[in-house]
Amino acid sequence: MHRWLSERAADWMTHDIIERGRLPLLVFFCGFIVGFVCIRISVRLIRADARWWFSNVTAGDTHVHHVVFGVVLTLLSGLGLIFFALSEDQVMMSVLAGLFGVGAALILDEFALIFYLRDVYWSHEGRTSVDAVFIALAATGMILLGFRPLDLYFDALHDFRIAHTVGLDLIAAVFNLALAAVVVLKGKVWTGVIGVFAWPLLIVGVLRLARPTSPWARWRYLGRPRKLERAMERERRLRRPFIRAKIFVQDLIAGRPDVLPHVRSETEHRLDEVVHAAPPPPPISPHRGLSGTIVGLPGDDVPAMGRRRSAHHDSEHEPVEPHT
To answer: What pTM value is reported for the model?
Structure first.
């Protein structure tokens, strides 16, 4: 069994990867995964304040995000790929493709920062970065396995014996992208991504109900309450288990998000208003007898004789003298 798997892997590497010129793409894919895993481990250790690990990179009071290093790395490696593409040096192109993959991982790991234009790395919005990374991995993996956009379209033309031209290809590409855009607006991101390679999935995604939180539902379902209710029922019945699994995976990879800053500050302010330390106990008089007398009771500022007389007149009982 082990020998059969080794032979199959070697045959796939030789015929499907090297001979077809996909070695740089494979190295890019591996570099992307390694870069993403390494940066996630690094930021988790920084968040945990591990003393033996590096801290955040700063320039004065400015935090230098790792997206900056990703941009520089992808720019340099991209220029190298363009230069060595003329010579078709597959080894050097593979090395540069690996660096390009690492840089792309650094960029997409902070995709939420670019999208929201603020530091939301450890907030709920920061999960957008994980989604972007997964989408990039899925698209690259499908290309690596030999899938290409519009392949099924070309196969259909071949089955119907229709010669495809530049005009037909352009119309098919625009139509394919338009369907993918509608599916994504309906909140079905994964269907849209995979459907670019398999257009029948796009048809299914267009015909099915949109997710109730999607832009399409806000535009089309607000005036149609029955359709919105059907979408919400479908979301509760079918998608809730998948959403729970997705949140579990995101927490495992990206860590639990922080509480929103304004919620944290309001909570701390409210606690400062209603929660106070208990006052210290009142001191015991050093001149007490065996029974003890607490200092600070009402009337302590009255002289001793006056206090005894007032106690004698205010109470029907005689005061008890301590034993000596």
So the answer is: 0.70
